[in-house]
Amino acid sequence: MYITFDGKRFEVYHGETVLTVARREGIDIPALCFSGEAAVHPPTSCLVCLVKVAGRFVPACATSVADGMSVESETDEVHQMRRSALELLLSDHISTCQTCGEGRKKCKLLRYMSKYKADRNKWNSGQKIEDDSHFPSSAKCIKCGICVAVSPALTFIGRGNNLRVERIDNGQTAIDNERLSRACPTAAIVSEERYHFRQSESGQNFADAKGGGTP
Fold first, then answer.
1. Are residues 66 and 86 in the same domain?
2. Peptide bond before residue 136 is cis, with ω within 30 degrees of 0
3. pLDDT in tens, 155-213
4. Dist. CA 126–CA 145, nearest whole Å
5. Within a domain: residue 215?
6. Both 58 and 111 in a single domain?
7. Pairing of strands 56-59, 196-198
8. For residue 12, what are the domain limits?
9. Total structural domains within the chain
């Protein structure tokens, strides 16, 4: 079975997605809500992995290959769609990178923003402040949902501008912080020993990310 990427022909296998083929063949398709773990289904929420297939824009992470498929990935039109998706995600992200430190090296958002020349202030009010007391960091989280897909202890709470990631229990379920850190495309989750979660809409109580207790 074969598909073409921007005119180049590649052999593919049943069950693969456009994105997994691209990763295997060294084709750089951006992806923020994709962990690479076979057991974790991507949320398809970031939409920066858009490609064009049969005249339609589709997420590469969730599009299964088919024999004879023709994929457009490096056209101006596709790049514009990815740029627009990035600019929408940046509206949820702090407008400066002051406290990320080593996190900047792993920030996929920063790398793709540079590659696709996304305007970080197009939809960003610039009013967010850095607050690492919440997990993930509320100013750095772009609501891509990959941490929720990776960890059964996490879920989304709220709507619109109030959407955020929270624990679904009282801190009883252990959190694999290293795994979450690898999956997170920004510095919203970094490899440190302790994090705290807001436990309710009121945000008055906190529990240790490793499984219990209050500070």
1. no
2. yes
3. 888 887 778 888 887 667 777 888 888 888 887 877 654 343 333 333 433 333 333 33
4. 22
5. no
6. no
7. unpaired
8. 2-74
9. 2
